[in-house]
Design a protein that fits this description.
mainly alpha; 3 helices
Length: 74
């Protein structure tokens, strides 16, 4: 959900993620496997959706520039 109690629960879950040593790996897994529900790596469903859009736009613009995509091995 996006209102009331659901927001409180999401904030509480994100607080746990802030102290987690594997939050980055968790977020990568969620993005790679298209996890649609829950808090993963300190992000909500909507935040991951926006991040995927941003990353796919970045990859597309890097590919069109003739330069390697960010994070790509050279």
């Amino acid at each position: 959900g996006r209102t009331g109690r659901a927001l409180e629960q999401a904030d509480a879950a994100k607080a746990v993620c802030r102290g987690c040593p594997v939050a980055g790996a968790c977020l990568r897994y969620a993005l790679e496997t298209n996890q649609e529900y829950g808090i993963w790596g300190g992000t909500t469903e909507d935040e991951r959706r926006a991040l995927r859009r941003h990353l796919s736009g970045t990859a597309a613009s890097d590919a069109g520039s003739g330069e390697p995509a960010r994070g790509a091995a050279s």
